[in-house]
Amino acid sequence: MFTPVQSLFGGGLLFISVTSLAAYNGKVAGISGIINNTIFGDSAPWRRAFLAGIGAMGIMLKFIPQLSGGHSVPAFPFSIGKAMAAGLLVGAGTKLGSGCTSGHMLCGIARLSKRSIVASATFFATGAATVYFTGGVPPRYNTVYPSKDELSKLILFITAAASTFELLPAMIKKKARDSTSQSIVGFLTGLTFALGLFLSGMTNTEKVRGFLDLTRPQNWDPSLLMVVAGGLVPNMIAYQLFLKKKEKATFNSRFDWPTKKDLDSRLLLGSALFGIGWGLCGVCPGPGLVTLAANPSAGIFAFWMSYLLGSGAAGYV
User: What sections of the sequence does the record tag as coiled-coil (predicted)?
Assistant: First the structure.
């Protein structure tokens, strides 16, 4: 179903999260990179805090129905075999291709990175092709708007998130070392990011696959376009007009932007593999973490075990 308003507000929360992480910590909110570096790399405290924030929001969505408006994070609906195949492809693909929808689309395209533009085009194309060849989604398109109470809650979420991150430097700058400040920012941006994923519909695998079902107009769900409008577009404006001109981040002496610029075979192959896995089950790393915390099942556990296997193996390629 098409949820234009909800997805727009969810995209807005994603924008606030990734822009705040960049402005304060000088870091890119590439979820696959954060996961891979936490498991296989330096495991920096801010990364662990970010992932803890995602997990905490997933648990809150499960046990605090008022927060989720009575809706729950949908169960992972695929078989263990399909979950393992998707996890392996997503894990290997994001490692080889240096990112997924968050790092390449939300953050990379905002910086006008050629690598991210090519990667995004590749995984969207292969994702759409995978959905087409695996049968698409059921034809039950309709548009759903929020009630007045739900709209009030969406406005409250956006206002609270924007206010918190606007006031954050004044609240913690003189009370904590930069490493501690980065962890606080990491946790809060993780919380906000997870809520944005939920509200936007990206934790709903059918909505994601519905967006990729481009060849069947009666099935197509354009909700993720509203995520682009609410998340990518303002992030691009913020980067080009603000972040690009800052000499250093608030709690970091530099900005850790990706430096690779070449369009190599690893980027193309990795993006294609990720797109196939994404199209197969409609889940990428960020939404997959929220689902793992909010609605654990054998299927989503199988996805993550296979993801780590794929990512670890691709590190040797």
Answer: none
Sole residue written with tokens 């990795």: 270
C-alpha to C-alpha distance for 10 and 278, rounded to whole angstroms: 20
Percent of the chain at pLDDT above 90?
80
Q: Domain of residue 202: give its range.
A: 4-314
Q: Using an 8 Å Cβ cutoff, are 223 and 207 in contact?
A: yes
Q: In this predicted model, what pLDDT tens digit does every residue of 36-55 receive, in sequence order?
A: 999 998 879 999 999 999 99
Cα radius of gyration (the chain): 18
Three state DSSP letters for 45-102: HHHHHHHHHHHHHHHHHHHCCCCCCCCCCCCCCCCHHHHHHHHHHHHHHHHHHCCCHH
State both tokens at 223. 């909700």
297 and 76 in contact (C-beta within 8 Å)? Answer: yes
- Which three-class secondary structure string do you get for the chain? CECHHHHHHHHHHHHHHHHHHHHHHCCCCCHHHHHHHHHHCCCCHHHHHHHHHHHHHHHHHHHCCCCCCCCCCCCCCCCHHHHHHHHHHHHHHHHHHCCCHHHHHHHHHHHCCHHHHHHHHHHHHHHHHHHHHCCCCCCCCCECCCCHHHHHHHHHHHHHHHHHHHHHHHHHCCCCCHHHHHHHHHHHHHHHHHHHHHHHCCCCHHHHHHHHCCCCCCCCCCHHHHHHHHHHHHHHHHHHHCHHHCCCCCCCCCCCCCCCCCCCHHHHHHHHHHHHHHHHHCCCHHHHHHHHHHCCCHHHHHHHHHHHHHHHHHCCC
Q: How many domains does the chain have?
A: 1
